[in-house]
């Protein structure tokens, strides 16, 4: 599936009654080009003929963090408790979202289930997802909530001197919400988890959907223990040295 075809499918999921001209206006392309893309989607089996009824192709689900990353780079050695000259880089982030984007760029049909606010950062995340063909329609969108942000300050060696996470929005990810996604999770070819999600959500998914292959990224030492009770359900566990020590209770010797 091409990037443009992915964009069209995401729009059709939100508005299956949209006209070809409206699609053309949204995508800033000719109506005739929309017709060609729709014809190709029908031939490939993604649409069931007229009416834009979507025939769901095999897909993966990523259940994890989606946030804005802000990274600060200093022009000189850091001076604590003072203002430092440097540059800032702002990008789309979140372990789960990053994994989902890479899967899409590999040509895999991917759904991201995360928690996103209705602020400017949330709007930017949703827009970027649509541009790259990442399906976020099953995410939890919250009104009057701030989207997750991670701030990192790098030292003169480009090592992180300080990190700050504003991720309280993930605490609003509830069991009742994830249970509404039963059909989506049940039909997934595999499920990728990250420990930005509350432990109760990780336990629920691992316990009920381990017949699918479950992949988990432990994210950080401070969050790794959220996965301790579901290790037996995992097909793949991705950890660094610190996370491995925390989950195993063993000190890794050099």
UniProtKB/TrEMBL annotation:
UniProt cross-references to PROSITE patterns, sorted A to Z? PFKB_KINASES_1
Task: Name the Gene3D superfamilies for this protein.
Answer: 3.40.1190.20, Winged helix-like DNA-binding domain superfamily/Winged helix DNA-binding domain
Q: Which residues form a coiled coil?
A: none
Membrane-crossing segments per the record: none
Q: Which UniProt keywords apply?
A: Kinase, Metal-binding, Transferase
Residues forming the Carbohydrate kinase PfkB domain are 59-252
Keyword Kinase assigned to the entry: answer is yes
Q: Does the keyword Kinase apply?
A: yes
For this record, an example GO cellular component is: cytoplasm
What would you give as a GO molecular function for this chain, any one?
A: pseudouridylate synthase activity
Q: Which InterPro entries match?
A: Carboh/pur_kinase_PfkB_CS, PfkB_dom, Ribokinase-like, WH-like_DNA-bd_sf, WH_DNA-bd_sf
> By what name is this protein known?
Carbohydrate kinase PfkB domain-containing protein
Source taxonomy: unclassified sequences, metagenomes, ecological metagenomes
């Amino acid at each position: 599936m091409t990037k443009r075809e992915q964009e069209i499918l995401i729009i059709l999921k939100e508005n299956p009654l949209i006209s070809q001209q409206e699609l053309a206006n949204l995508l800033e392309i000719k109506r005739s080009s929309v017709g060609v893309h729709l014809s190709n989607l029908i031939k490939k089996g993604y649409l069931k003929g007229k009416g834009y009824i979507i025939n769901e192709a095999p897909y993966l689900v990523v259940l994890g963090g989606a946030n804005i990353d802000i990274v600060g780079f200093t022009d000189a050695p850091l001076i604590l408790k003072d203002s430092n000259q440097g540059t800032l880089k702002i990008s789309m982030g979140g372990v789960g979202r990053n994994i989902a984007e890479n899967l899409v760029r590999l040509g895999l049909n991917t759904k991201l289930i995360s928690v996103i606010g209705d602020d400017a950062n949330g709007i930017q995340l949703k827009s970027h997802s649509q541009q790259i063909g990442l399906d976020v329609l099953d995410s939890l969108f919250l009104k009057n909530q701030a989207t997750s942000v991670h701030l990192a300050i790098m030292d003169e060696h480009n090592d992180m001197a300080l990190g700050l996470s504003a991720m309280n929005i993930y605490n609003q990810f509830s069991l009742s919400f994830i249970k509404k996604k039963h059909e989506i999770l049940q039909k997934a070819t595999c499920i990728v988890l990250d420990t930005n999600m509350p432990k109760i959500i990780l336990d629920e998914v691992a316990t009920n959907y381990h017949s699918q292959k479950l992949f988990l990224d432990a994210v950080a030492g401070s969050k790794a223990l959220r996965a301790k009770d579901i290790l037996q359900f995992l097909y793949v566990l991705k950890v660094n040295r610190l996370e491995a020590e925390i989950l195993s209770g063993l000190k890794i010797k050099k």
